Structure formats: structure tokens, C-alpha cells
Amino acid sequence: MVLKVAVPMDLVQGDVDEGYGRVADVFRDNFLTRHEIGAACAVYREGRKVVDLWGGYRDGLTGEVWEQDTIVPVASTTKGMAAMAVALAHTRDLIDFDAPVSSYWPEFAAQGKLAVTVRQLLSHQAGLCAIDQPLELEDLADLDRVATVIASQAPAWTPGTRQGYHGISLGWYEGELIRRVDPQHRSLGQFFAQEIAEPLGIEFYIGLPDDVGDERRAKFHAYKPAEMLLHLHEFPARFVLGFLNPRSITYRTFGNPRILGLLDNYNRRDVLRIEIPAANGVGSARAIAAAYGEFATGGKRLGLSSTTLEALSRPAAEPSGGREDVVLGIESLFSLGYVKPFPRFRFGTSEGLAFGTPGGGGSFGFGDPDLGVGFAYVMNRTGFRLFDDPREIALRDAVYRSMNATPQIPSV
């Protein structure tokens, strides 16, 4: 059931540059007409912050206010931030996207994975979306244990022939790659904190530190899985039925441990404390937009190479079997840890240079190199779309219309 809370307009705050007033109007309208509880939206263009909005309640049940420095779990929007760590490793010649994963991580070669490339893995084509060996939450804090388990996983299909959203597992594979190639053998969360967040001066965590107080964090108001059946006009039916069927690959993708497949559990400190680089990032819209803005404008502060940035912008290398996603049940398109624009999910400019990741419930962050834009929307009332949440797309469309650029067309 959607929690409905009346939000006074004096709790909607922030600022926009001249010409972006319609974005502020849409942000306010989300609270008035689209059941927003608490949210934030930020946009950087050519390195300058042009939109910085926040408002509502960080907890709709207690009435605690969403402040300027409120942070929030962003589910799979985390994937895009984690992929930045891998991209930075590529810039530093630590990773070759077309090299076999096993050349960096020999144990990965087990179960016929010797030739699986980094590009195939990051593009959800490796067949490693589901992990069969049971894992408990406490296991996930032991990165050696996780690495042993995921290295022994057999692919669900011949790598490169199909794609299926690696909803939880992708981050663990990325994390072990970073540990293997980083001269300091840092975890992905540590690498991101020290090599990306610190230089950019942003607050985004993959593994929430204990000294970041709960009073700063927004509460996820999440739907229960059974409620998805009431929203088949929004969710893909195949995804919903698979998510609820323990025998399906969709269920298995999000079901080990099952706690990670339920959005409400991302309110738990024990879930946020460990590193789940595909799912449990916590931060602000401002941080996500700033990071994407850096990647969309040349990445000078991070020392990103033109080769890396060109690789992120180029069209995806599609699997031989087509774009149908065996986990999501719809067409999709991925490249190097990111979603790329495709007919049902149009974002960025018409050239398709943009790259980003949406998160369960409605959040979205992306970079558009063609216009030098970094965009982010985060919220705490979860919606019922895999992407193109009505609140988010209304904001994204307002941003692009403010720039007299390509309108953002909803999926059909």
C-alpha cells in the first residue's frame, strides 16, 4: 500500500539556476500530486551545480524532516557508482575491459569461465546473476568467503550469448576484481571512498560507516513483494511472476540471501554496514549528480583517460542472443556496469551516449557526455517501476526542456 503523507510546501527547499525554474515546479508537484514523501534532485552541467532540491520527510511515519544533508539508500543506483571504481581502475591500466576476468583472478576460471571477459561480466552477460551456494548476511562481511563462493559459480548460460540482470551479484564480482588489481588490495567501498568520493568531496558510501548517524538517513517506505501483483500495469509481468517464484532465475538472482531482495531491509544498519556494491549504497542526490557530472565532462579531477570515457559512451556490445533480459523479462541494454539507452528506456540525448543506473523504487543517476550533464534523483517512497518512475522522469524531462534539449520520452 502506498503511504500517503501530506507534505507542507515550506518543507520543499533548495535552489536552481536561472532557466531551471520548471524543475523546481515539477519537484514541488511531485509532493502535491505524485505522493512524494521525501526526495532530492540535483543536476550538474559542465561542472556547475544548476539544480539542488530537497524536501519532505526523511521518515513519513515520524514526521522527521528531510534536511539538506539527508542521505538515503539508493538500491541499484549504487551500481553506477561502483562501476566508476572499475572505470578508474581501467584508466590506471589495472584492468583491460576485454581481458579475461581469470587473468586477474585465476580462481574465477572454475566451471568453464576461463574465457569470460571483464566486458561480458560488467554487461550482465556472464550468466552469473544467481549464486547457488547459500550465503548468510554475516558471510558477506568476509570478502574472502564471498570470493570463494562466487568464483565457484557455474554460468546459467553460455557467456556472451544472453544477458540477465546481475541484480546483487555484479557488485561482488566487481569488488573482487578491484581487490585483485589494486596495489593496496582495498575493497571496492574503500577504493571508491579514497579514490573517488574524497577527491570529489562527495558523500556516498558503499558500506555505511558506523560513525554516520541514523538521524541523517532517510527511511525507505517500501512495498511488500505481494503488492507487485497489483501493479502489473507498471512492472513487467514476467519479472513479477519470476520474483515471486522460488524456482525461477529471477527469484534466485535476488534470493541469496533473501534479505537482500526486499527493499525494506535496506533500512537495517547491519545490511548497510557491509559492502554490497550492487545494491546498498547510501548517499545524496548531490553526490551522485556530481560524480556523474565529473565523468560527463572529462574527469580531470580524477585523472580519467579519454580512452576510458570513450568506452563508457560508446554503444553496448550486445549478446549474440539479443536484448531480451532473462531476469527482468524485458528488453534491456548494458555496458561496463551501466544501463545504456534503449527504445523502452530513453534517457540523455538522442545519440545514446548517456550511461547510468536506476534503482529499485525509483531513484536514478546518469551522465550525459554530449551535454556535460550529471543527473540524480533519490527518494524514500518506493514506486512500482523498474525505470521511468513518473516522479523521476518528470524531473528529467524538465531538466532537458530547460536546456532546450531532447525531451525525455517515457517508456511504452
Distance, first to last CA: 24 Å
CATH topology of the domain at 9-69 and 230-257 and 284-402: Beta-lactamase
Task: State the major sheet.
Answer: 7 strands, antiparallel
CATH-scheme architecture of the domain at 9-69 and 230-257 and 284-402: 3-Layer(aba) Sandwich
Overall geometric form = globular
Description of the structure:
The strands form 3 sheets. Strands 1, 2, 3, 4, 10, 11 and 12 form a 7-stranded antiparallel β-sheet that branches. The model has no long low-confidence stretch (mean pLDDT 96). A hairpin with a 2-residue loop joins strand 2 and strand 3 (48-59). This protein has a domain at 9-69 and 230-257 and 284-402: Beta-lactamase. It contains 12 helices and 12 strands. The chain has helices spanning 21-33, 77-91, 118-122, 143-151, 169-181, 188-200, 237-243, 249-254, 269-273, 285-296, 306-313, 390-402; strands at 12-16, 38-45, 48-59, 64-65, 72-73, 204-205, 282-283, 334-335, 338-339, 355-358, 364-368, 373-379. Helix content is 29%, strand content 13%. 55% of the residues are buried. The two termini are 24 Å apart. It is α+β, with helices and mostly antiparallel strands. The radius of gyration is 20 Å and the shape is globular.
List keywords for this structure.
412 residues, alpha+beta, Beta-lactamase, three-stranded antiparallel beta sheet, 12 strands
Compact description:
This protein is α+β, with helices and mostly antiparallel strands. It has twelve helices and twelve strands.
